[in-house]
Amino acid sequence: MNKRGIPKDSGFTLIEVVVAVAILAFAIFSTWRVISSSVSSITRQEKQVKALHIGQACLGRLEGEDFSKVIPENFVATSSGLINYKLNESEILNKDQIVDKNGDGVVDKKDFEVYVYRNGTINPAQEGWSFDPDNLEIQNISVTAGDEVYINYAYYSLVDEGGTIPSSDGEGIKRGTIKLITDPGNLSSITVEELSSASPIYPVNYSSDTCELSFASSDETKSVWIYYLPERTTADTNGDGYQDPTDDSIVGVVQGSFWDIGSGSTTTAVTNTKRVSVTEFWKQEEEIRKVELKTFIQR
């Protein structure tokens, strides 16, 4: 009751309303931050798991490769004079895979190191050699019969995937569609072969938004092998010397060196062991994150 005997209103005062709204807003904001952080963490972990899977598959493929073809590539000259050497065709399909190591915007001989190992001494190859990007050849290397030559560079690795084209919808799988693990950018970047015959199969559509590769109904039930080069930007925002992945791609870089087991370090000598690393990069918001895997390969 007030002094005049009139009952007070039982509603909230303005201050009480403002305090209640502030508490509610704080609670909503805190909940949103927790949800946002959880979603971001799940997305980051998903990309990291994918990157690990791609990197492990690449290392497994390299461990089954001929020692001389594993980067750095090496061979013994069988004759004297000027010779040409073609880069590993099972790993390098075109010049777009070669890393522009010196950052001049062009893939050329400056992105390679060519050494000649002769009578226990290793020296850089004479300056007359060149790189032919169309044929993926190191050309005009001056050698003497018996020289061991090694060629070092870095390259963006292909992604290899296998699967069976589904013939019916079920368990979240679309009929005639295979979802790729990362983004190759467009249909022209993707090569598909039937597993049993190695015959080419031609997908009818690719969606970069969903990473879904669609096939004709006549190709359903076929087991296929899919390989492609993940999409990259032309930028290098973090200055690591490699082109950045896009928002939806995971980009792998392969590089290696000869390894001296005695000293436990890399060497410019040609040894029986190579240390090879595969680094997978992905974009997380504005940051470029990575995971690196290493292996030793012996002849």
From TrEMBL:
A single GO molecular function term of this UniProt record: calcium ion binding
Protein keywords: Membrane, Transmembrane, Transmembrane helix
Coiled coil regions, renumbered to chain: none
InterPro entries for the chain: EF_Hand_1_Ca_BS, EF_hand_dom, N_methyl_site
Domain EF-hand: 97-122
NCBIfam families for this protein: IV_pilin_GFxxxE
Name of the protein this chain belongs to: EF-hand domain-containing protein
Source species: Aerophobetes bacterium
